[in-house]
Amino acid sequence: MRRSDLGEFEEVVLLAVAALSPKAYSVVIAEELERETGNSVSTGAVHAALQRLEQKGYVSSFLGEATAERGGRRKRLFTVSALGGRILQDVRAVRNRLWERIDSHLLLDWQ
Amino acid sequence: MPGHGHPPKWITRFIEWLCAPHLREEVLGDLHERYELWCAQLGQAQAQHRYWREVLAYVRPSIIKRQPVIQRSVKFPNPTTTDMLRNYFKISFRTLGRHKLYTALNVAGLSLGITCFLLIGLYLFDELTFDQQHSRASRIYRAIQHKKTPTEELTIAASSYKVAEEAPKSIGEIENSARIVRTGRANLSNPENKNTFQETVTFGTPGVLKLFDFETIDGDGRSALNEPNSIIIVEELAQRLFNSTQVVGRTVDFEINKPLKITAVLKNHPRNSSFDFKAIVSEATISSDKDFAEWTASWDSQSFMTFFLLKEKASPEVAAKKITDLLKANAKLEAGSSISYTLQPLTDIHLFSDTITEGARNGNVEAMSQGSLLYIKIFAIVALFVLLIACINYMNLATARASNRSKEIGVRKANGAFRYHLINQFLTESLVVTTISFLLAVAIVNLLLPAFNEFTHKELSLGIHSDYRIWLYSLIALFATGLLSGSYPAFLLSSFSPLLLLKNLKLQNRGDLSLRKGLVVFQFTISVVMMIATIVLFQQVQFANNKNLGFNKKLLLVVDINSSKVRSGAETIKTEFSRIAGVKQVSATSRVPGEWKIIPTVQINTEGSSNEPKVAYWIGADENFARTFEVQLLKGRNFNGMSDSTSVILNEAAAKMLNIREVSGQRIGIPSRAMGGSYRPLNKDNQPFNARVIGIVKDFHFQSLREKIAPMVLAYQRNPVHNIDYFTARIEGKDIPATLAQMNDVLAKIDPTHLLEYHFLDEQLARFYAEDQRRETLLIWVALITIFIACLGLFGLATYAAEQRIKEIGVRKVLGAGVMNLTVLLSKDFLKLVLIANGIAFPVAWWATNEWLNDFAYHIQVEWWMFAVSGVLAVAIALATVSYQAIKAALVNPVRSLRSE
């Protein structure tokens, strides 16, 4: 496995893009993450993470339609690229392998 | 959903400004959407609170960073507003073309104003950039010595040898030094053809060529003063001596030394250089002389004019302090006296040396040319005023014609023009007029420059090769003029309501009218002040030239004594001169009244008196002096001959100073004389010169009329203070060239190498006031131009007023008014303005001219007729301008003016 340059927040954002596809853009991602984590997430932070992900080639973007609640402005929609998908799978595989190696007694203790 | 109110607008503006343009849409959209969401979920207060933090989260480099500009310019290849710009220009040209008379008046006024401004500006620029041609000018400083003794205070541009020599060695701030000394005048001649010229002799160190960048034509400009017996000359002298400028390696004969080798030929000095030497001899040439050895030992003398080159960023104050400390550590000063040094920037020498005595020169070396800061300021103000008057003209005419354009403005406004559109349009119009006037003015300036240069003794030019700063300032002036003259009409005309404009088609704006009147008053005030100033200046110069000076200056010919042979043969020469048919009287003197070189001063005291010695001027003269100059002897007797070698005659001022009423051979002592700025004993033994007073002469003006007649001692020609230096002959007015030729023959018999150098005393005296005469001429021209421009404006206003009141005039005519009646009606308003202007101008002019006249110890009084003449002249000119239009309007057949309605 190649060394991942995916930060934790970036990983979550990337996962959210995949989950919300094909209607993923910064506001819904931020709302979704807030709901999932319970912490407040600013669109600014999400926007910046998406910029970084796009630079690395994990997501691609295009301008969508204008809507009234945006004051007639268009939104930028994101989709996970093939490379991004592979990276997500890699990360998941690493985690899974490690999870499987944890002693079942220990898992019971945590619950 | 919309309807929940808006987030604080200024925060949105802030992020809009902060965010890179290409991200703006999505970022603002996100913010807006999320705010709406929060409003729905949490209510407006909470939403606003979170909006804040949300916006702050966007303050990060990846959002702020702009995309490279190239992409933007591809997106917007042209400014989007060229259409309007083109329209502004088109309308401007159409309007200007339609009203040819007004355009012509405006352009004429503005181009005259700008011409005046440019000419004065060029002159001032030249004066203000003196000595800046040297590349290290900003680091070069002149040493100024401040000496204080119990009896005198002296500030002199000179230093001692030791200070000049040791300071660069021991003071870290100083990089290099140069010094010059101007010892007097001597003959330089070409050994082959005996072309001989008398020139001021300057001795200089090699540093002179290392500090300053004198351009060379031939030879090495850096090392030419290293060797003894070398000389550098300027090209003009090279031409005179050798008829060539490629003369490096040739020798010149030098009257007071061995022949000198020419090591470099310099270009002539530019006119804006303080240096005017024709030749510099290397200091090494005289460094083994006995006199020189005296100089080299001294710390506290004032033998050299010294320049220091400071290191980059070195502070001149610190350097000067260190020089003073160096001096204190080494010199033994008399009790109660002190010496300190300051450093004067090279570029300040021309304008800021009023209070500084120029040192290190012999009394017969002319001083460096000086500029006058006061007149620079006066001229700068005058230039600005002329330009301002031209601007006012434009404003006046443009606002006066506002109602003619009211329809245009109204229609534009009705069609949706914003106020700034109209402002832009009027400013464009004024800029077009100013630019046309400016181009015309540049052409006129170039036509006038040859005459102007001759008049100011400068080499000014305005062309592609001029200093970029001249063009920069000119362009700034151009834009300022355009905006200033356009701004008032632009703001005024654009402020009217379109409804009123289209309904009434007539503007009744009282405030506007009174401002226009105010501007006319201002113009004429300045014109009248300038006229009065011109008259006063003219009268004062006349007064100076015609005043009875206490001697008769007409037909006095002064011949310089330029060699020791001629000096010792003076008695023979005097006899020979007086035999020449055209010569009535001959006198030999050390200095003459109206002297252009320095008249020495001495300290003087009555014998046995314990008072501090007083200061008096000193002129050595012979027994013919009083008769030749026609000076009146009041008491006592004249000199009789050699037996009077210890007798002196005083002028009234000196007699009064010494409390001498009757002449009875009172004994006076002269302990010391001025040398390089301080008083030194007459001889080594410190023996005073004791003399008897044998006569008193009536005061006569031996200096310019700016000075009060000072105490003066006339000593016999052989005296220990000052040798004779001139023959003065009272000649007859006819065939002066023949008289001169005969005089030359007499001199040549005594000394074949002697050069005849002569002056007419009345011409020399006129030179005291040459600058005033020049200023007078300049003022006359400026006054004429101001009044002419003011009249152009008045003419335009009168034309306009006549046009406006054409119906009124028609009605009045029908009811029986005569032409005279109507002319008075139309002229009255304008005459009132000119009269008010006179009222303001008189006190201003009275104050200003009195200030100026107080500079002269002897001056005219400002009299009422000077005001009357100027006032009447202004009224007459204004009347002539206005009445032409008034009469024309009054003569129009009323049928024509009343028919159409």
How do the helices and strands line up, and which of them pair or pack?
The complex is a heterodimer of chains A (111) and B (901).
Chain A: H1 8-20, H2 26-37, H3 43-56, E1 59-67, E2 73-80, H4 82-101, H5 104-110
Antiparallel strand pairs in A: 1-2
Helix pairs in contact in A: 1-2, 1-3, 2-3
Chain B: H1 9-18, H2 21-42, H3 44-57, H4 61-64, H5 69-75, H6 82-98, H7 100-128, E1 140-148, E2 153-157, H8 161-170, E3 174-189, E4 196-204, H9 207-211, E5 216-219, E6 230-234, H10 235-242, E7 251-254, E8 260-266, E9 279-282, H11 290-296, E10 305-310, H12 316-330, E11 338-345, E12 357-358, H13 373-400, H14 406-414, H15 419-456, H16 468-493, H17 498-504, H18 510-546, E13 556-560, H19 564-568, H20 570-579, E14 583-589, E15 601-606, E16 614-621, H21 625-629, E17 633-636, E18 647-651, H22 652-657, E19 667-670, E20 672-675, E21 678-681, E22 689-697, E23 712-716, E24 726-731, H23 736-750, E25 758-760, H24 761-768, H25 770-804, H26 806-814, H27 819-853, H28 864-891, H29 894-898
Parallel strand pairs in B: 2-12, 4-9, 6-8, 16-23, 18-22
Antiparallel strand pairs in B: 1-2, 1-10, 1-11, 3-4, 3-7, 3-10, 5-8, 6-9, 7-8, 13-24, 13-25, 14-24, 15-16, 15-19, 17-22, 18-23, 19-22, 20-21
Helix pairs in contact in B: 2-3, 6-15, 7-13, 7-15, 7-25, 13-16, 13-18, 13-25, 14-17, 15-16, 18-25, 18-27, 18-28, 25-28, 27-28
Protein name (chain B): ABC transporter permease
Domain MacB-like periplasmic core (chain B): 103-325, 525-711
Domain ABC3 transporter permease C-terminal (chain B): 381-498, 782-890
